[in-house]
Amino acid sequence: MSDRLNRRYGTYAFLIGDLGDIGIPRIPEFRVKFHLTAALADYVASVIEQDAGGEINELGKLSETEYFSKAYVLPRGYHWETEPKLQEKEDVFLAAAQIETATDVDEETKQSELTALVDRASATGIEVTVEELTAWLAEQKPEVPSYSWVQLNDFRLFELQDRCYPWLTTDELLEQTDELPGPPRPKWEQ
């Protein structure tokens, strides 16, 4: 992804993990690198590739700090869809799959979220019931990353601000990278 972003004029994109260590043992290296780069960067793009582990710490820092206004997330396999993005019945089923596979959520909460999803779908003119969604989930058993409820809520926050760019394949990640704000790509590339 950094290579793709570096093709834009005046852009220097890099991975925090590729930066050298500062060599002070009493200070957490990654925390210092994260805050320095996020504070000095014009844009922060966070690619979330796995459904558990590493990125949740950074995701929380981006969503709850002054970095939020310049941050963008690219979560793999995320599909929640807020009202403006619910355009077809398939969008509703994929969002239901995200709810179904969420970790750390009891069945009552899942049912409540499915009901809220049905209400959002109905507001956009898509007629579907919780029973239809439940039957489809039982039949299809869709494979999507099982993000924690904390991660899903952060993704939704970014989505509501039009700064969430979901992807599933590497090609889709590259396409989504091209949609991020910043300097344009060279015209000879197009």
UniProtKB/TrEMBL annotation:
Origin: domain of life: Archaea
Pfam families the UniProt entry points to: DUF8170
Name of the protein in question: Uncharacterized protein
